[in-house]
């Protein structure tokens, strides 16, 4: 059974369609990256999966249950993007309180996670930096070893060393057969830990790709050294040209088209002196999905 299943899931706010006909499956033992800019529909999707919102149309199942029911929630771990905690309580008191809500939890798992994340549980939450408060939120999401983790921008405020430990925690959960739904716009995070990625734009899921497939897209980053007057118009019409920058004697672009067509367009207006090519960054590949069709 897939821990997340959505079919034609939609949500309107008045006349505004925040989410449109989302079809989604997250498999057991998978880290699924959910990518999109602010306002794309990521948070609306998560709120529907948590049962905080009722869908306008369509359906979703989380751990085999309707999101609005409660029996599955002991098996769910959640970290919101706007984490709010009790400022007067220490980290240890906060986690003990949350553990008691779940029916009790051994201190060993909490202490182990605190050590891994270098979290100080003795200070009041109100005295902690945003990154250290985020560590408390991560511990609360992981401490009961849930079957499904839903994490919304979880790396906010974490320093690089702690980020690496957090990434290892997600991969360990997946290796144990548990699942992670990771909403993020941090591409390096998704590239390191996700098995598949869903890309959402303006409320629509526009692509679902394996991260390995994204890395092997044919897009290349090209730097062309030329003699002669060359303009952006001379190359922009070539199919596959993206992110074109024209400078005196030099052109830089990302390209996923027919190389002979590009070279012919260059030769028609200038003399090619040298060409440098490399694989485009994952970010460049990702951004191509956000270009308007116009």
TrEMBL record:
Q: What is one GO biological process annotated to this record? A: response to antibiotic
GO molecular function term, any single one: ATP hydrolysis activity
Start and end residues of each ABC transporter domain: 4-227
Stored InterPro entries:
AAA+_ATPase (IPR003593), ABC_transporter-like_ATP-bd (IPR003439), ABC_transporter-like_CS (IPR017871), ABC_transporter_ATP-binding (IPR050763), P-loop_NTPase (IPR027417)
Topology term for the membrane = Peripheral membrane protein
One GO CC annotation: plasma membrane
Instruction: Tell me yes or no: is Nucleotide-binding among this UniProt entry's keywords.
Output: yes
Keyword set includes Nucleotide-binding: yes
Q: Where in the cell is it found?
A: Cell membrane
Tell me its family: Belongs to the ABC transporter superfamily.
Q: What is this protein called?
A: ABC-2 type transport system ATP-binding protein
Please name the source species.
Answer: Tessaracoccus bendigoensis DSM 12906
């Amino acid at each position: 059974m897939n821990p997340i299943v959505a079919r034609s899931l939609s949500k309107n706010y008045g006349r505004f369609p925040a989410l449109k006909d989302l079809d989604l499956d997250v498999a057991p033992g998978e880290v699924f990256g959910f990518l999109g800019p602010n306002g794309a529909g990521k948070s609306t999707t998560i709120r529907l999966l948590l049962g905080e919102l009722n869908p306008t149309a369509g359906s979703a199942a989380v751990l085999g249950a309707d999101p609005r029911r409660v029996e599955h929630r002991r098996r769910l771990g959640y970290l919101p993007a706007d984490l709010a905690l009790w400022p007067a309580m220490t980290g240890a008191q906060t986690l003990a309180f949350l553990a008691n809500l779940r029916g009790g939890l051994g201190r060993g798992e909490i202490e182990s996670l605190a050590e891994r994340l270098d979290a100080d549980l003795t200070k009041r939450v109100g005295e902690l930096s945003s990154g250290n408060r985020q560590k408390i939120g991560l511990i609360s999401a992981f401490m009961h070893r849930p079957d499904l983790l839903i994490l919304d921008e979880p790396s906010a405020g974490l320093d690089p060393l702690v980020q690496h430990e957090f990434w290892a925690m997600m991969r360990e959960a997946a290796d144990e057969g548990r699942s992670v739904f990771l909403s993020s716009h941090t591409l390096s995070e998704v590239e390191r830990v996700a098995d598949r990625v869903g890309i959402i734009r303006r409320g629509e899921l526009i692509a679902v790709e394996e991260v390995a497939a994204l890395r092997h897209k044919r897009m290349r980053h090209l730097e062309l050294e030329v003699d002669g007057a060359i303009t952006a118009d001379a190359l922009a019409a070539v199919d596959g040209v993206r992110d074109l920058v024209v400078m005196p004697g030099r052109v830089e672009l990302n390209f996923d088209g027919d190389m002979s067509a590009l070279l012919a367009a260059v030769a028609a207006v200038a003399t090619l002196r040298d060409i440098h090519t490399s694989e485009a960054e994952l970010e460049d590949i990702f951004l191509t999905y956000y270009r308007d069709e116009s």
